[in-house]
Amino acid sequence: MLSSFIPRGNRGIGLKISALAVLFGSLLGCTTPTTPTRSYEPIARSTPRTTRKQTAPEWRFRPLSWEKLEAIEVWMAGSGRRASNALRMEAELTLARGRLTFATRDRRQLSPATLNARLDSAHAGFSRVLSSPASTAVDRQRAREGQGQVAAQRKQAPKALGIIPRSSWKASSAVPSRLTPNRGAWNRLTVHHSAEYAGLLRTASSSESADAIRSIQRYHVQDKNYGDIAYHFLIDPRGRVFEGRSMRWQGAHAGGNNNVHNIGICLLGDFDRESPSQASLTALEQLVTQLRSKHGISSDRVVGHGELKTTACPGRHLRSWPRSYRGGRGTGGRLAAR
Q1: Is 309 helix (H, G, I), strand (E, B) or coil?
Q2: CATH number, position 317
Q3: Which residues, including other chains, have CB under 8 Å from residue 154's CB and lie 6 or more apart?
Q4: Residue 96: which pLDDT band, with cuts at 50, 70 and 90?
Q5: Which end of the chain is less congested by CB atoms within 10 angstroms, N or C?
């Protein structure tokens, strides 16, 4: 021991040094205790519940598109049900705003029914935000602004294009044995002219236009041996649209296989000699967009008769209309009703 090396005369000092040594040993944490240590079971502690950090949904980072809106709808029906109020309000507003944006953008290419359906969906989305207790003052302000814009679009929405049925223009009965049923989806629209001077029809009554259409039907059935008038629709210079051959049947307006799944539209007039009236062009545009929307026809499938075969039809003053439609007003691709 340390005290055995200390002279007798200094035993008091030695005792003090020994005591200090023991004290320092305990403070320094001696690794060889003189008695075994007792083993203890770990104390069970209740760990605090951690809050899972909510990651932003992927759709938030996409540019506006129909695919984004569809992704939002899927998210809201799935994982979005557990999302924060702020995220769900953002989703509702983005959906409503997107539908309003596409209704405004595509209004000239949509049928009135499809346009109104988009506006209805947008209005319903804004209404859900306004009625939700989870919405903030800013959310409600955005929703009110959106509803105001929906109302403004409704005022500009065109009315559904009225089509005069065969019974009204007293069409003769078709000859089914000479007709070919249409099988499959319509995928093309072809524009024609009747090649008869329409000057007198510009101020004509509906009955006078009906007389002209009956004359065309007689020529097609009696002289050309068709089963009915060749076209599915006819438009007079006043912009009135008449039902021609039933859509049950393939047309006889474009020649051979060009008639397959091809809707024929004829404007009354000779547009090598005259220009079509503005009323007839407005009706033509409405009819084409309405038929495209209903049947899912791409804008690049709107053509003039002369683009399918060698012919002067639909006349030099109407020939550019289908190209203009494809290049400008009809650049919406397939027009599914969303």
Answers
A1: coil
A2: 3.40.80.10
A3: 116, 119
A4: very high
A5: N
How far apart are the C-alpha atoms of 232 and 69, rounded to whole Å? Answer: 36
Determine the pLDDT at residue 243. 97
Beta bridge partners of 241: 163, 235
The CA dihedral of 275, 279, 283, 284, to the nearest 10 degrees, is: 10
* Residues above pLDDT 70, as percent of the chain: 77
> 101 and 201 in one domain?
no
Residue 11 lies in a domain: no
Amino acid occupying residue 124: A
Domain end point (choices 94, 129, 156) = 156
Sign of the CA dihedral with 118 first, then 120, 125, and 130 last? positive
CB 335 within 8 A of CB 106: yes
Share of the chain above pLDDT 90, in %: 57
Residue 170 CA to its chain's centroid (Å): 40
Helix (H) / strand (E) containing 322: helix 320-324
DSSP state of 104: H
Residue of 82, 18, 11, 76 lying closest to 52 (CA atoms): 82
- Tens of pLDDT, residues 189-242: 999 999 886 666 776 788 889 999 999 999 999 999 999 999 999 999 999 999
The H or E element spanning position 11 is helix 11-27
- Number of domains making up the chain: 2
> What range defines the domain where residue 292 resides?
163-329
Tokens of 165: 């049925």
Pairing of strands 262-267, 241-243: unpaired
C-beta neighbour count of 106 within 10 angstroms: 18
Instruction: Identify the domain boundary among 137, 156, 175.
Output: 156
Which residue's structure tokens are 């049925």? Answer: 165
Beta bridge partners, 263, equal: 189
